[in-house]
Amino acid sequence: MPEMSSSVQSVAVLGAGSWGTTFAKILADAGREVTMWARRPEVAAEIAGEHANSGYLPGIDLPANLTATSDAAEAVDGADAVVLAVPSQSLRSNLERWRDLLPADTPLVSLAKGVELGTLKRMSEVIGEVAGVPEESVVVVAGPNLAKEIAQGQPAAGVFACGDHDRAVAVQEAAFTSYFRPYTNSDVVGSELGGACKNVIALSCGMAAGLGFGANTIATLITRGLAETARLGVKLGADPMTFAGLAGVGDMVATCASPLSRNRTFGERIGSGETIEQAQEAVGGQVAEGVMSCRSIRDLARRAGVDMPITDAMYRVCHEGLDLATVGAELLGREQKPERM
């Protein structure tokens, strides 16, 4: 085992949502001492005292070596690695508050999947800029990571992407359990864009399902959605083979096909006739990541000169109020051409 791997014994997880809690559980099940930071003191108290996070993972027992606090300084004190488990659009503001607390030269692990509005930066770029660390030192977690299934111990895999191979291996070793198999990858750009774009494509799949369309339509959207994601990734320097792996097709299929996917469910409500506001209210006031990401990814694609018709269609539905019938007719009526990525 590489020297850095053996040093990752104590981990701080900043964020106590469903995926942050699940990832903390993975680390604890792998034998690490884990301290979570929760914004709300009552959530931290429940995790620490009752070994549960009923608001996000009801029915899941958390390991005894996983505790929590609402004090970020306490959470990161003595940590060998720090996991950033907050939504993509709030990562910058949270990290600005935390950066002076982070132990020097500690691996930073990003769970967020998105492209920042305005700056159009990927999450590793945001972390590098705000925390003042090299982007290539940030470990990005990607892949089909539906939190509830993994928290239940169902077999799954993920990709830990980092330009620093030893750092990726260190986090990989710290998160290897009997039910979760992490792989490493040096393609941070492709891994991050796969994770961000799949949320937008999942919206379209949900909308199609809400309209009553079946497997052929969903498969078409997944396949062509993956193609436009790969086009953007390759233009920005990604390895095209990344999109054939867990960070690409793996995450795309899981997010687009599962009712556990918030983006798929959100889109299905819109397809069934609800407004964005009604769908948001139905899921407890939370906006699906893809609703925000379709704007930033569309802008990023336009800046790069890449055609992303499904992403553009989701932007027009979510932010310009275009009706789904018009969107469907426009997508099906596009110029005929050979199939290509």
Walk me through what this model shows:
With 341 residues, the protein is of the alpha/beta class. 51% of the residues lie in helices and 11% in strands. The protein is built from 16 helices and 8 strands. The chain has helices at residues 3-7, 18-29, 41-50, 72-76, 91-98, 123-131, 147-151, 165-174, 188-210, 215-235, 246-257, 262-271, 276-282, 289-304, 309-320, 324-332, and strands at residues 10-14, 33-37, 66-69, 81-84, 108-110, 138-142, 156-161, 180-185. The protein has an 8-stranded mixed β-sheet with strand order 3-2-1-4-5-6-7-8, with helices on both faces. β5, α6 and β6 (138-142) form a beta-alpha-beta unit. α9 runs antiparallel to α10 (215-235). The longest helix is centred in the middle third of the chain and has 23 residues, at 188-210.
Physical arrangement of strands within the biggest beta sheet: 3-2-1-4-5-6-7-8
State the helicity in percent bands: 40-55%
What gyration radius follows from the Cα positions, in whole Å? 19 Å
Order of helices and strands: HEHEHEHEHEHEHEHEHHHHHHHH
Structural class: alpha/beta
The low-pLDDT segments are: 1-5
Oligomeric state of the chains in view: single chain
Tell me, briefly, the overall form: globular
Number of helices: 16
Number of strands: 8
Biggest sheet details: 8 strands, mixed
* Beginning-to-end CA distance, first to last residue: 39 Å
> How much beta, percentage-wise?
5-15%
Mean pLDDT rating: 94
